[in-house]
Design goal:
The protein is of the alpha/beta class. The chain has two domains: about 110 residues, 2-Layer Sandwich (Enolase-like, domain 1); about 200 residues, TIM Barrel (Alpha-Beta Barrel). About 40% of the residues lie in helices and about 20% in strands. The chain has eleven helices and twelve strands. The strands form three sheets. It has a seven-stranded parallel beta sheet with strand order 5-6-7-8-9-10-11. The chain has a three-stranded antiparallel beta sheet with strand order 1-2-3. It is globular, with a radius of gyration of 20 Å. Keywords: Isomerase, Metal-binding. Belongs to the mandelate racemase/muconate lactonizing enzyme family. This is Mandelate racemase/muconate lactonizing enzyme family protein. Pfam families: MR_MLE_C, MR_MLE_N.
């Protein structure tokens, strides 16, 4: 029998994040522990963010309770993840189970997780700093601090207020060598508005723009109308093609889901990178290991946790932990 238990963890972000979907200061995640008949265990994390992904904490908790009942009567040779999926196909809940399975496999084999995924995994993952939709002076101060800390890329939330003025202040603060990406979270709404916004921001020099609008066709139209690389995120159709990059997230089905999405996106001709939904330490660790195994070269949005211990960025990278497990 595999026993599933759940506990809640809360943490505070280093500063309040403002985005087009709302503000975030505190974060709550569900930590899932699986205890196995071999005497070992594994832990994962469910990190729904309802204002962003529309998934409530209550729905995830209900799914995890249902999974616990399934696992109590599961045959020893059964596929744990598929048994849970058959009960309730909720990616944010399945992600927690998937991470716990990988955590257990790493502990059982004594192999660091990145090398368990792929023995060719790299030893460090480049990461970006994230700047909310602050006013000009606040955004510039945050960007300057990120550049001093060694970040080679900053991501700025847009879709609220004076985007052009904010981005100009950020560019002035970081200089010409630091990459700037923007994230609209679909706030520009239509292709026409998105293209006009990108034209106003192009002089800043953008590395890419995440999710200017929602929907595959809209993203394709925006990409066709701009030189700025467009990245798909919330739309989550990695094999659709028509954009230059796909942002992958562990909250959408765990490490197994990320690896499948990466294969699909790359087959469609898109670059890939990972980001968090302001996950807790297990979610960030899982994403770092997955990015290392995928040998991602674009900066990943994983510098979102503080204090981060072994996952603290230094000079714009997170070193991949060489220990077993996720924590």
């Amino acid at each position: 029998m595999i026993a599933l238990s759940v506990r809640t963890e809360r943490f505070t972000l280093p500063s309040t994040l403002r985005a087009s979907w709302g503000e975030l200061r505190e974060r709550e995640v569900l930590v899932v522990r699986l205890d196995f008949p071999d005497g070992l265990w594994g832990e994962g994390e469910a990190a729904p963010l309802e204002p962003y992904d529309g998934v409530s904490m209550a729905s995830v908790r209900a799914a995890l309770d249902a999974y616990a009942a399934v696992l109590r009567s599961l045959e020893p040779t059964a596929d744990v993840l598929e048994a849970c999926r058959a009960e309730r196909d909720l990616p944010q809940a399945l992600a927690a189970v998937d991470l716990a399975l990988w955590d257990h496999a790493s502990r059982r084999t004594g192999t660091p997780l990145a090398r368990l995924i792929d023995p060719r995994a790299v030893g460090a993952v480049p990461v970006n700093a994230t700047i909310g939709a602050e006013d000009r002076s606040g955004a510039a101060a945050a960007a300057a601090a990120a550049a001093r800390a060694g970040f080679r890329c900053v991501k700025v939330k847009v879709g609220i207020g004076d985007d052009a003025g904010r981005l100009a202040a950020v560019r002035a603060a970081v200089g010409p060598e630091v990459g700037i990406r923007v994230d609209a979270n679909g706030a520009w709404g239509t292709v026409e508005v998105a293209l006009a916004a990108l034209r106003s921001l192009e002089p800043v020099g953008l590395e890419l723009c995440e999710e200017p609008v929602h929907g595959v066709e809209g993203l394709r139209e925006v990409q066709a109308g701009t030189r700025v690389p467009i990245a798909m995120d919330e739309t989550h159709a990695p094999g659709a093609g028509g954009v230059r990059a796909v942002c992958l997230k562990v909250t959408r089905g765990g490490i197994t889901g990320v690896l499948a999405d990466a294969r699909t996106a790359r087959a469609a001709g898109a670059d890939v990178y990972l980001a968090s939904t302001f996950d807790g330490p297990r979610g960030i660790a899982a994403a770092v290991h997955a990015a290392a195994a995928l040998r991602v070269t674009r900066s990943c949005g994983l510098a979102t946790l503080a204090p981060a211990g072994a996952l603290t960025p230094r000079d714009g990278v997170i070193e991949v932990p060489g220990t077993v497990g996720l924590a």
